[in-house]
Specification:
about 220 residues, Rossmann fold, Arc Repressor Mutant, subunit A, five-stranded parallel β-sheet, about 20% strand, binds calcium ion
């Protein structure tokens, strides 16, 4: 994972770089926004840490510039100011998260990891659980090399379950994310669709992937 840090204060920059390198991240630094803008244009960063207060172009402007250039890289904004107004400005400029100085490195690291996790999932076009593969671009699904044909709703349900693999997914979560306002809570439509999916992806395979959590919902996992 590669990170770009845009920060003009040398002491703060070296403190962050040292900590991130200890965590096995590759880190590049820029001490002004123009340099950061150029570097972000030529290198595939997984994350950008951006100080708001910079000489010349400020961090908010740089953030807007990156978003105008369709850069979807996660951006964590840093600032000495911690007011609600500053936070809102940063988020409105297109930042994903915000951290007010001074901060503990542990908090910065926790936010970095959370953003990278989010980014990894959002950038990945394929989801793999056990021997089941789902391609979010082509919408192809196969298990053990065997192609599985699904209806649109079955695909949406499977994708939702796979995104949340390993955690319990409640019927409410499914109804809110897979169905629209027309969903009728009095029906057992979710159970019906889960059974459709079971027939298509689990039937004939030694290890079922869809598991019922009695009274709660489902969990999608290998065993
Ligand atoms: Ca600064």
């Amino acid at each position: 994972m590669r990170i770009l840090l845009v920060e003009d204060e040398k002491r703060v920059a070296s403190f962050i770089v040292r900590g991130l390198k200890e965590e096995h991240y590759a880190v590049d630094t820029a001490d002004e926004a123009e340099k950061g803008l150029f570097m972000a244009g030529v290198n595939p960063y997984d994350l950008i840490i951006l100080d708001v207060m910079l000489p010349g172009m400020d961090g908010l402007t740089l953030c807007r510039e990156l978003r105008n250039k369709k850069q979807t890289v996660p951006i964590l904004m840093l600032t000495a100011r911690g007011s609600v107004k500053d936070k809102v400005q940063g988020l409105n400029a297109g930042a994903d998260d915000y951290l007010a100085k001074p901060f503990e490195f542990e908090e910065l690291l926790a936010r970095v990891k959370a953003l990278l996790r989010r980014n990894r999932f959002e950038k990945s076009t394929q989801i793999l659980v056990g021997d089941l593969r789902l391609d979010q671009i082509t919408h192809e699904v196969e298990r053990g090399g065997k192609r599985i044909e699904l209806t649109s709703k079955q695909y949406a349900l499977l994708e939702y379950l796979m995104i949340h693999a390993g955690t319990i997914v409640t019927r409410t979560m499914i109804s809110e994310h897979v169905w629209n306002e027309s969903f009728d809570t009095l029906t057992n439509v979710i159970d019906v669709y889960v059974n459709y999916l079971r027939n298509k992806i689990d039937k004939g395979f030694a290890k079922p992937l869809i598991h019922t959590v009695r009274g709660t919902g489902y969990v999608f996992k290998e065993s």
